[in-house]
Amino acid sequence: MKLLVSVNTCQLDPYIEHGADGFLLPLTSFSTDFETTYCLEEMIMIRKKYPQVCLFVVMNAMIFNQDLKEVEKILKTLETYHFDGIFFYDWAIYKIHLQNQLKTPLVWNQTYMVTNQATANFLYEKGISYGVLSSEITKDEIKNITESPMKFFMYLVGFLPVGLSRRKLLTHFYKTLGKNGKKKLLVREDSTHMPFLFHETLQGTSILYGKCFNAAPFYKELSSMSIAYGILKQDYLEKSIFLKVLSFYANEKDLEELIVETGNLIGRNTGFLARKTVFKVKKEKSNERG
């Protein structure tokens, strides 16, 4: 499994030195759920500076009618500079890609929807090379899905999305209080006290789970599956901490050290890897009355 990282800078050398095999570059105005985005010109500059490094562009925002011509222009430009793939959410990107006979690989990136082998097989037959696995499935479900010929990405580290609103939720919230609003806010749900991070951008408001995900306890098992890339997100983590975590994942020979050290740095939240998201209510047999 190669390591793909999203970072908060155009200077990639420290991350390469600490073990990164490639990078995610979220495109400004056409991506969500990332703290830092890049304009097209910055992406081209990075591609020229790092010609041998794997670079994947993220376009995981919804596409509207007024965006279609610009999206087509962007996809053609990305093709010219030979990026390694494009993460997409909206099927308009697939349609434009198909109509223009573009060759840049597409990465099916629909957050919670990459959950079964049948859909993966179908889309692979339609020319989609990769998929990003849902973060809400178990390791056993991942094992079954990765038997598909499609190649997969999965998140290993990061604050992961749980929802998105097109509305400016924080702006409206602070407006009702008569205050100048912040663009980021950590809140806790009343009954469970679970933390959630709200981050408002031009695309709306991303809602992320407020505990950093860390797949370290299952990394060896996951590495034995057909997963092409593991993704580590730096968002909301200090650079020094993130580089240490990246180093431990890159040098995973000592699994116990990986588990302990990364757990000390970013916590031990393993999400749903060992537990299902939905629990069925067990029906009790009713007593028969004579």
Order of helices and strands: EHEHEHEHEHEHEEHEEEEHEHH
Number of strands: 13
Strand order of the biggest β-sheet: 1-2-3-4-5-6-7-13
Number of H- or I-type helical stretches: 10
Query: In CATH terms, what is the architecture of the largest domain?
Result: Alpha-Beta Barrel
In terms of structural class, how would the helical and strand content be classed? alpha/beta
- How confident is the prediction overall: mean pLDDT? 91
Radius of gyration: 20 Å
How many domains would you count in the coordinates? 2
Helix content: 25-40%
CATH class of the largest domain: Alpha Beta
What does this structure look like?
With 290 residues, the protein is α/β, with parallel strands linked by helices. It folds into two domains: 2-159 and 212-266, Aldolase class I (TIM Barrel, Alpha-Beta Barrel), CATH 3.20.20; 160-210, no CATH class. It has ten helices and 13 strands. The protein starts with a strand and ends in a 24-residue tail after the last helix.
What's the helix and strand layout?
Elements: E1 2-6, H1 13-17, E2 22-26, H2 40-49, E3 54-59, H3 68-80, E4 85-88, H4 91-99, E5 106-108, H5 117-125, E6 130-132, H6 139-145, E7 151-158, E8 161-165, H7 169-177, E9 184-188, E10 195-201, E11 204-209, E12 213-214, H8 219-223, E13 227-233, H9 239-250, H10 255-266
Parallel strand pairs: 1-2, 1-13, 2-3, 3-4, 4-5, 5-6, 6-7, 7-13
Antiparallel strand pairs: 7-12, 8-11, 9-10, 10-11
Helix pairs in contact: 3-4, 9-10
